Amino acid sequence: MSVAPKPPRFVPRDPLTLHPETRLVHGGTTRSPFGETSEALFLTQGFVYDDAESCEARFKGEDPGFVYSRYSNPTTAMFEERMALLEGAEAARATASGMAAVNAALLCQLSAGDHVLAARALFGSCRWILEDFLPRFGVETTLIDGGDLDAWKAGVKPNTKILFLESPTNPTLDLIDIAAVAEIAHTAGARLVVDNVFATPLLQHPFELGADVVVYSTTKHVDGQGRCLGGVILSSKQFVTDHLQTFLRQTGPSISPFNAWIMLKGLETLALRVERMQASAGKVADALAALPGVEKVIYPGRADHPQAELAKRQMKGGGTLVTFVVKDGKAGAFRFANTLRLIRISNNLGDAKSLITHPATTTHQRFTPETRAEMGISDGLLRLSVGLEHADDLIADLTGAAEAL
């Protein structure tokens, strides 16, 4: 007499039926036979096999198991799956840093003779890849005003393979119409790559707007507590198979399993942190606009943002960063930053602690004054990443700094 197998007592829900906040806690979890509550941290370089035949099958790709942590790792795989579920992507691959993600997302699909069209308002290291690095290998690049759709259309060439942008931009918080640029890219037979780090996966969904590849520095909001570096590239399974997987495997910009584990822990609280930080950022932006010595405030959630209508259409909120300009240029900006007693000076962002940066002398210091002016970065401009402190305490600190002006 045969006995039917006993069904499992716990059957997990389909993650696609769950809200993003729930996916951030449960998505991608793979438990070992020990049944641990927290995701396991697999600090291993390699893996063993039962026999030589199994090893051969693994290397051929006939056995889907793990081979080497430079290629893939159980902890890293959980982080990648959770990010893909959150972003609505078919696949994700983690990297050692955000710039490793940007570099890999571009290089894996480019060859000598190709052309990249990009918005000029970019993080300094991204501009370096486009302007200094890619041309060394015969890849042509063109930088344009990202807000000018006619410039995107005019900039496309027969050999254009990639359109690249970030929105909101770093540090001026300009917005680019992702859906419109995606249509231009696809009409030209090119792919659109979007750096979505400022908006976070919760406040803007580039894939829904037509993007083909999305990149993040998970060092920022995903970790969110200043602990470690990481990045991630999200796209279709076909893109990963045809372009990305081999590039990552052979060049090795792999994330540490420990860092991937930290990112998993950060994702669990991402929704709570972003909600609180964004609420405070809105209050801080309004307070800054009323302070003496503050000449301009830029925040996508304010009605006076030059692209407020696009912000409402494209984003789910104003974000966690506020950019503002103080009088007296660099001297005024330094005096303002040095007077702060709660907000700290740092070039990072998306942290639980509020951080302020002077882009002209840090993230964008290598550019000429003319190039910075073209990007909208004046000597009096400051970028504030709003953290988890009480908004009233931040406003008091900023008010004290304004009085020093």
Describe the structure.
The protein is an alpha/beta fold and 405 residues long. It has 2 domains: 17-265, Aspartate Aminotransferase, domain 2 (3-Layer(aba) Sandwich), CATH 3.40.640.10; 271-403, Aspartate Aminotransferase, domain 1 (Alpha-Beta Complex). It has helices at 20-26, 52-60, 74-87, 98-107, 124-133, 149-155, 178-187, 200-203, 237-251, 257-289, 308-314, 329-339, 369-375, 391-403, and strands spanning 91-95, 115-119, 140-144, 160-166, 191-195, 213-217, 231-235, 294-298, 321-326, 344-345, 355-357, 381-385. The protein has a 7-stranded mixed sheet with strand order 1-7-6-5-4-2-3, with helices on both faces. It has a 5-stranded mixed sheet with strand order 8-9-12-11-10. Helix 1 (20-26) packs antiparallel against helix 3 (74-87), helix 3 packs parallel to helix 10 (257-289) and helix 12 (329-339) packs across helix 14.
Q: Give the CATH topology of the largest domain.
A: Aspartate Aminotransferase, domain 2
Number of H/I helices: 14
Radius of gyration: 22 Å
Query: CATH first level of the largest domain: which class?
Result: Alpha Beta
H/E topology pattern: HHHEHEHEHEHEHEEHHEHEHEEHEH
Question: What name goes with the CATH superfamily of the largest domain?
Answer: Type I PLP-dependent aspartate aminotransferase-like (Major domain)
Number of domains: 2
What is the residue-mean pLDDT, rounded to a whole number? Answer: 95
- E-strand count: 12
Helix content: 25-40%
Structural class: alpha/beta
Oligomer: single chain
Give me the CATH architecture of the largest domain, please: 3-Layer(aba) Sandwich
Shape, principal axes of CA atoms: globular
Indicate the proportion of strand residues.
5-15%
Separation of termini?
A: 88 Å
Low-pLDDT regions: none
Largest sheet descriptor: 7 strands, mixed
Strand order of the largest sheet: 1-7-6-5-4-2-3
